[in-house]
């Protein structure tokens, strides 16, 4: 007997590793149990397509083109960000340490995560990397997801202390403290990525056939998939807790922090305008230097505020995707159709979040823009003599 709602089993296996029945009507689900071969006319490939869907995603080509564009922009931008921060001592600030950590997280997603997802869109099954590869894939996506939001949260707290409590910032907002926080962030991300990773593994379809020799269970090796192997309710609970603790709660906290930062900057601007009208201390060198520092602090804060807003927009579809999967138990055809679009959109925005940050730095930070130009021009000037000497020889 065909299970129509069980044929939608392809898209949801990359960024959060799950794959399985979408409806109780699928019970017993062929992924977790044996297939009763009622229709012996079907070939092995026919059974695979019947229960696992087509091998190649129908949206592979357009998604691949979009992903490759994001990949090129993201890798070049994040490598430039890391190079600029690592090579220039003037960029060794606590804020830039967090941006460096965020760039490393983005590079991990682009260099390791995106190729895995593109491969699975090209060939949904079999999963060729084995159990270790399945664990690695699930762990990687979960870890960078957690590390990104924790880096952004730590960065926002650092900005809040620097702007609202400048006296305390001298002792708290330091490079040593930033390094400790970043190590803690990655440590927490590694530990908290383990539960979801442990819920996954490799499953293959089995054919149950009866013959003269008795009942025989044949495993279809080409059906191997990296999927959820533990009870569904544990996964649902894990996803819901993760979304609350590592997305909703941090985003609310960050919103409150930037609201307080905005109020503080507004008060400073009003105070500055009053001092300008009164003419008090306008010509003093210390006052001019202080005003320049405040202007630069406002520029950095605005850039980071935009970064947080873009981060929230890019990651919201990803968590919507996960929550939709964990909350809906009775899947209909309309649910499947909506989910397909949500999953594709969440994937594009997920990777876009790893590519957009360097663009924001270039647009909103004068110092980053100058450093980017310096690094790129330096590399270009290093390349020119080499190419000339080659043609001359």
Automatic annotation (TrEMBL):
Major location, coarse class? membrane
Its keywords, alphabetically, are: Cell membrane, Disulfide bond, G-protein coupled receptor, Glycoprotein, Membrane, Receptor, Transducer, Transmembrane, Transmembrane helix
Read off the InterPro entries from this record.
GPCR_Rhodpsn, GPCR_Rhodpsn_7TM, NeuromedU_rcpt, NeuromedU_rcpt_1
Q: Domain of life, per the record?
A: Eukaryota
What SUPFAM superfamilies does the record tag this protein with? Family A G protein-coupled receptor-like
| Pfam families to which the protein is assigned, alphabetical | 7tm_1
List, for all copies, the residue spans of the domain called G-protein coupled receptors family 1 profile: 77-361
User: What are the subcellular locations of this protein?
Assistant: Cell membrane
Q: How does it sit in the membrane?
A: Multi-pass membrane protein
**Its GO CC terms?**
plasma membrane
GO MF term set: neuromedin U receptor activity
State which residue ranges cross the membrane.
Answer: 59-85, 97-119, 139-161, 181-203, 237-261, 300-318, 338-363
User: Which family is this sequence assigned to?
Assistant: Belongs to the G-protein coupled receptor 1 family.
What does the record give as the function of this protein? Receptor for the neuromedin-U and neuromedin-S neuropeptides.
Record's PANTHER family? G-PROTEIN COUPLED RECEPTOR, NEUROMEDIN-U RECEPTOR 1-RELATED
Q: What is this protein called?
A: Neuromedin U receptor 1
Which species expresses this protein natively?
Fundulus heteroclitus (Killifish)
């Amino acid at each position: 007997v065909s299970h129509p709602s069980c044929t939608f089993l392809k898209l949801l296996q990359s960024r959060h590793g799950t794959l399985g029945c979408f409806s109780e009507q699928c019970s017993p689900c062929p992924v977790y149990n044996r297939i009763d071969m009622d229709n012996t006319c079907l070939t092995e490939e026919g059974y695979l397509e019947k229960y696992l869907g087509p091998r190649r995603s129908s949206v592979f080509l357009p998604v691949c083109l979009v992903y490759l564009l994001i990949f090129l922009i993201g890798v070049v931008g994040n490598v430039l960000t890391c190079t600029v921060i690592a090579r220039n001592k003037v960029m060794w600030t606590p804020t830039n340490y967090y941006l460096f950590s965020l760039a490393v997280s983005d590079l991990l997603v682009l260099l390791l995560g995106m190729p895995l997802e593109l491969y699975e869109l090209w060939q949904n099954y079999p999963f060729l990397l084995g159990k270790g590869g399945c664990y690695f894939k699930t762990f990687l996506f979960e870890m960078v997801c957690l590390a990104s939001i924790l880096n952004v949260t730590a960065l926002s707290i650092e900005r809040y202390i620097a702007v609202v409590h400048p006296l305390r910032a001298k002792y708290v907002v330091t490079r040593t403290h930033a390094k400790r926080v970043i190590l803690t962030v990655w440590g927490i991300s590694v530990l908290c990525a383990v539960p979801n990773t442990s819920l996954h593994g490799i499953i293959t379809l089995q054919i149950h056939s009866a013959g003269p020799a008795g009942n025989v269970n044949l495993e279809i090796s080409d059906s191997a998939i990296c999927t959820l192997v533990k009870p569904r309710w544990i996964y649902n609970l894990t996803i819901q807790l993760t979304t609350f603790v590592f997305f909703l709660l941090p985003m609310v906290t960050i919103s409150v922090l930037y609201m307080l930062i905005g109020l503080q900057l507004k008060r400073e601007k009003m105070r500055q305008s009053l001092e300008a009208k009164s003419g008090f201390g306008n010509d003093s060198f210390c006052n001019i230097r202080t005003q320049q520092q405040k202007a630069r602090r406002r520029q950095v804060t605005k850039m980071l505020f935009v970064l947080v807003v873009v981060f929230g927009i890019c990651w919201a579809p990803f968590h919507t995707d996960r929550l939709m999967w964990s909350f809906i138990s009775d899947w209909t055809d309309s649910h499947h159709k909506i989910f397909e679009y949500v999953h594709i959109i969440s994937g594009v925005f997920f990777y876009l979040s790893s590519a957009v940050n360097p663009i924001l730095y270039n647009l909103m930070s004068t110092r980053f823009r100058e450093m980017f130009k310096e690094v790129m021009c330096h590399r270009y000037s290093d390349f020119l003599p080499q190419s000339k000497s080659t043609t001359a020889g």
